[in-house]
Design goal:
- The complex is a heterodimer.
- Chain A is mainly β.
- Chain A has one domain: Immunoglobulin-like (Sandwich).
- In chain A, a hairpin with a 6-residue loop joins strand 4 and strand 5.
- Helix content of chain B is about 0%, strand content about 50%.
- Chain B starts with a strand and ends with a strand.
- Classes of the chains: A mainly beta, B mainly beta.
- At the A-B interface, strand 5 and strand 10 of A face strand 6 and strand 11 of B.
């Protein structure tokens, strides 16, 4: 596609449930990032992939959060045992190489945990 | 710790007036610097970036920013704002090495009076 695509655009889940958020980056982009944006805040880094491997996962808040990118393209962010505090907009971005190249953002998935 | 500060949470200007949005950073070395804009329902869009060289950088939509090393600042300017500039603006930095993950400020919400 022309841009970074994230699905679903909105997700409402009950506390304690498992959710998966999908990111489809721009074709050919090797670098992929996940960020989380809480209301009234700037985005916060979660994890960075270069190809298939997670090169930096220092932003994942705890072990309930996990992300994969098995074929170096689509990525899935997985959240186990969701908590109300996980409610936020989850943003995905991709860039050509991750080095001095522009990161293009998707429109995000708004996750609400009730 | 690395940080980005946008001192103004909300700014209101009249259409046609000039604009300056402030950004200060705290890093051990000169990072890469970015300004992004986020309109309602839209993804983050890159306005401009600074890596090195000329400290005055031009971006899209008539925006410019000036890097001042002595003040650790990277303020965004526009000589004459348009109603369509109403949005949330984020300053961000990234270390030149490694993942180049973005660290965002809290954002400045810009309102335009007709």
């Amino acid at each position: 596609g022309a841009g970074v695509s994230q699905t679903p655009s909105n997700k409402v889940t009950e506390k304690g449930k498992y959710v998966e958020l999908r990111c489809d980056p721009i074709s050919g982009h090797t670098a992929l990032y996940w960020y989380r944006q809480s209301l009234g805040q700037g985005p916060e880094f979660l994890i960075y992939f270069q190809g298939t491997g997670a090169a930096d996962d220092s932003g994942l808040p705890n072990d309930r959060f996990f992300a994969v990118r098995p074929e170096g393209s689509v990525s899935t962010l997985k959240i186990q045992r969701t908590e109300r505090g996980d409610s936020a907009v989850y943003l995905c971005a991709s860039s050509l190489s991750g080095t001095r190249t522009e990161a293009f953002f998707g429109q995000g998935t708004r996750l609400t945990v009730v | 710790a690395q940080s980005v500060t946008q001192p103004d949470i909300h700014i209101t200007v009249s259409e046609g007036a000039s604009l300056e949005l402030r950004c200060n950073y705290s890093y051990g070395a000169t990072p890469y610097l970015f300004w992004y804009v986020q309109s309602p329902g839209q993804g983050l869009q890159l306005l401009l970036k600074y890596f090195s060289g000329d400290t005055l950088v031009q971006g899209i939509k008539g925006f410019e920013a000036e890097f001042k090393r002595s003040q650790s600042s990277f303020n965004l300017r526009k000589p004459s704002v348009h109603w369509s500039d109403a949005a949330e603006y984020f300053c961000a930095v990234a270390l030149p090495q490694g993942a180049q993950k973005l660290v965002f400020g809290q954002g400045t919400r810009l309102t335009i009076n007709p």
